[in-house]
Amino acid sequence: MIILDTLEYSFADELAVGFSYDSEGKRISITFESYYKNNQYVEKKCTLTIESWTEGESKMHGQEKYGELESNLGIPSLLLGVDQSESMVVLTINTLDDRYLVLRFVGAHIKVNDV
Length: 115
What we know:
Layout: E1 2-4, E2 7-10, E3 16-22, E4 27-32, E5 35-37, E6 40-42, E7 46-51, E8 55-60, E9 67-68, E10 76-84, E11 88-95, E12 100-106, E13 109-114
Antiparallel strand pairs: 1-2, 2-5, 3-4, 4-7, 5-6, 7-13, 8-9, 8-12, 10-11, 11-12
């Protein structure tokens, strides 16, 4: 679940239908066909964007140490989990090639926009 202002967003069991990564602009976007907003199902495309991070790292699920973000980056098929604090967001994703990855972003801006 992602909390922005007072709104809660969830992408549980929603397939990712789009993905983009801009290494220079420090921006990752994942598009979904539908989502949950404040526990209400919304049947409309939306894009989750994480950008302007000060530090981005990744690892294979189960590994102890994080490495460079691009060392384990892949195209997401499912967003399995999100842990969020004031200064950090951690995504657990399943990729199209069936890898389980953990992406960690420090100081990132997060937004969710309807498409």
